[in-house]
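Aim 2, interim progress: modelling of the xylulose-1,5-bisphosphate-bound target.
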Amino acid sequence: MIRAILWDVDGTLAETERDGHLVAFNRAFETLGVAWRWSEARYGELLAVAGGRERLLHDMRSQASAPTDGALQVALAGRIHRLKNQLYAAIVRTGALPLRAGVAELLQDCAEAGMRMAIVTTTSAANVDALLRAHLGAHWRSRFAAVLCAEQAPQKKPDPQVYLRALQALRLQPRQALAIEDAPAGVAAARAAGVDVVAVRSFYFANAEIAAAVAVGPSLGSARGWRPASEAADTQRITLRQLIQWHRLQHAPARAAASSDRILPSR
Ligand code: XBP
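Predicted structure of the complex, ligand included:
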């Protein structure tokens, strides 16, 4: 039985990587007089490295104009990353990062059903605050039973640390939670913590291999194109009821199909 929905942030709630972090990184490079820029494609490759600061340090190894001294690299990465986060927050405030389709409705489903929710991300707390304040208002935290960010879980996904800490905070067993993720590293992190995942495709992971999810689909705003197929013929989006159904199918396939109407909430 699911007792909480665990939300990833970047790529899942909004297309923050392409339209937010990448743009902000390039503006930070420019502002600080750093010679290099990242293309959309290059940033896609760099997403294999979790964490903005870690990504910068990784990329510096192949940048001819980057400092060669390790301490100088760390200092420069810190400066760029701090400015990047300020610029990211400014981008969010312009309204350029809308919630992805179906997210607001699913948040509402959970609120109405009394389903607890948590934010489970390895991005910085300031970035999460900027995004959710813009979309859910100044009191957005009250909608979540727990908020776990890079500050609480320094081991980045695919390390399971952030999921294990979320389960601890919620006092739940892994089987009592369901994660929503977009990236293979996020799916791996949740699975390594024993948490099932519904994976929603984002721009950068549209074709990535995601084998370990209970369901994979293009958007929470569409009931089409999901594997396994969404049973929500009556709705155009993925509902909490559908998430519960997928989770039950995973653990008790025969019984779930027979008893779903009796057990599932009405929406
Ligand atoms: C997403 C990330 C982050 C963001 C940038 O993590 O990997 O690094 O790209 O954010 P998650 P920071 O999938 O856990 O949301 O610059 O704050 O690291």
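The chain has ten helices and six strands. Residues 8-10, 17, 21, 50-52, 81, 121-124, 127, 150, 157, 183, 186 surround xylulose-1,5-bisphosphate (CB under 6 Å).
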